[in-house]
């Protein structure tokens, strides 16, 4: 077994000691309630022993949280984590599954608003309209393993841009690159605009008319349907246009790109966690993993 204080170092977990302490205080009770609920469901009735009786956990909650953070940050195999914590591989697998779901359900931190978190796209639009925040939206793709031959929907994950099997995440950030929301991942073959519409962005534009979102050229369909709210780069002048007009177009396009680049920085922060560089596990676990990592990144950037 390795020294537990060493395993909790920021180089292993990817977060500061203060951040880890706040996570422990925030998630300890939900984890206990969730474990008790699973036990109640398994035995089919109320407990017959006093709370605290029975077998003890081989890994306390703090160790489970640290093991999950190490797994997310460095993608260490469960068997290796089992050796580090002195438990069986199956214990680590169960711990990572429980804590990862808790991290995914936390939502995203609101800048300068401790305790307030955004969990849905409607929350983000309501926050942006109330605070006058101009949003940035973009999509990113994570390479995944190719589905087995003969399975339905095998081609749905083949990205036309990456020429690989991927899953696509839609992310919203503010003007300083702070992550405010990440959608559940969708097959990589889906177009960026289709993914945004599937997340419910059309209804949000309709109900929050004062919100503006900066987008790239991949979202021209949204710009056409929601002028003044979905802002894409200016269209290139027709051939033969005056030189001054072309120069103005280049300046406007550069300014738009400079304003929108912050969401690219947010995506880069997510990809620093090794599990999002290339996903080698089951595809149905990637959405919770992405939301968990994006939520952790939002905690750090919300206080910057």
From TrEMBL:
<protein>
    <submittedName>
        <fullName>Transposase</fullName>
    </submittedName>
</protein>
<keyword id="KW-0479">Metal-binding</keyword>
<feature type="domain" description="Transposase Helix-turn-helix">
    <location>
        <begin position="61"/>
        <end position="107"/>
    </location>
</feature>
<dbReference type="InterPro" id="IPR027805">
    <property type="entry name" value="Transposase_HTH_dom"/>
</dbReference>
<dbReference type="Pfam" id="PF13613">
    <property type="entry name" value="HTH_Tnp_4"/>
</dbReference>
<dbReference type="GO" id="GO:0046872">
    <property type="term" value="F:metal ion binding"/>
</dbReference>
<dbReference type="InterPro" id="IPR027806">
    <property type="entry name" value="HARBI1_dom"/>
</dbReference>
<feature type="domain" description="DDE Tnp4">
    <location>
        <begin position="137"/>
        <end position="296"/>
    </location>
</feature>
<dbReference type="Pfam" id="PF13359">
    <property type="entry name" value="DDE_Tnp_4"/>
</dbReference>
<feature type="region of interest" description="Disordered">
    <location>
        <begin position="225"/>
        <end position="244"/>
    </location>
</feature>
